[in-house]
Design brief:
single chain, 314 residues, mainly alpha, Four Helix Bundle (Hemerythrin (Met), subunit A), 13 helices
Length: 314
């Protein structure tokens, strides 16, 4: 039988691991059982050597971009090296967030940088696949598909991230979520000076546009969040939190499908069979319909609670 000390140590390790996660509701199984454990060990190492979460994010960009470059070559061996690099980049991407939560070193700039990291990875991947396809006989028209797939990817990732943060906002409140709104961001942006804060203002402009896009794709949700912010300034009622979680939690699987793991599994498949260009069509004609379905379902949930909100005021 295990000693009490061993049991306590296991429980302590479990508690540390769970505290490094955003929420079990929003985590994907592959992440929980693969990337998050690896990310946690990387986070511990980075904490020991004094690396900040933002530094880890920047390092992940180099590995992710290198992976994309290796997908240009029609060699399975080189492609597999690229696959391993991309998986390591994603482990680093997991580690930066876990490190931020463990050390309470979270910032909006860190979140923005984290989002840019993935964009750099996949920009590299899309460029490599386009160049590879042209070497294999495609015309320059392949760039049209590459760009359209890239734009689709940006929207898919943006909305998945937004819906996850909305879910966290409802179950954990402001401190447990990274949910922003364009009104507050606009006010902060307007107060910045181009002469004194040029870089910060430039980054803030991009993030403001990003947030506005998320809000345009979710009009019913914006109505719900608006009344929530005005009528529940002291915190959400427990029943509203419970009911929202029960209805919204099943939709979190769609945010995971359009994110990293699913697309990368199929990207690796196309690379293994030497048809990398299929990845663009998978993004356009498989993941986009899932995106549309996800947004429609989320809008229905938002409309449902907007209509019932008076029940929670009593």
């Amino acid at each position: 039988m295990e000693s009490l000390q061993v049991k306590n140590k296991k429980q302590e390790n479990k508690d540390i691991f769970e505290s490094s996660l955003k929420s079990n509701d929003t985590e994907e199984k592959i992440d929980i059982y693969f990337y998050r454990p690896i990310g946690l060990q990387i986070a511990f190492f980075c904490q020991k050597v004094g690396l900040t979460p933002n530094a880890v994010t920047i390092i992940s960009i180099f590995f992710g971009v290198a992976a994309g470059i290796l997908f240009y070559y029609p060699s399975l061996t080189i492609n597999v090296v690229g696959m391993l690099l991309l998986m390591f980049a994603n482990s680093l991407d997991s580690a930066d967030g876990q490190l931020a939560r463990l050390t309470n070193n979270k910032s909006r700039f860190g979140r923005i940088l984290d989002g840019f990291a993935g964009d750099f990875w996949f920009a590299s991947i899309h460029i490599a696949i386009c160049l590879r396809a042209m070497n294999e006989g495609w015309s320059a028209a392949v760039w049209i598909f590459g760009i359209l797939a890239g734009v689709s990817h940006l929207v898919q990732s943006a909305m998945a991230d937004y819906y996850r943060n909305v879910h966290l906002f409802f179950i954990k409140g402001t401190n447990g979520s990274e949910l922003d709104n364009s009104k507050d961001l606009q006010e902060e942006y307007d107060q910045m000076s181009w002469s004194k804060q040029a870089w910060t203002k430039f980054v803030s402009r991009g993030y403001l546009n990003y947030t506005k896009m998320q809000e345009r794709f979710s009009p019913n949700l914006q109505k719900l969040l608006g009344i929530i912010r005005s009528d529940f300034k002291e915190g959400l009622p427990a029943k509203l939190i419970h009911d929202f979680r029960q209805m919204n939690k099943p939709l979190m699987k769609y945010t995971n499908i359009v994110q990293f793991n699913t697309r990368v599994i199929f990207l690796f498949l196309w690379l293994f069979i030497d048809y990398a260009w299929i990845y663009f069509f998978f993004d356009l004609f498989v993941l986009n319909p899932i995106l549309i379905y996800m947004c429609n379902r989320q809008e229905k949930v938002s409309a449902h609670f907007y209509e019932r909100i008076n029940e929670y005021k009593a």
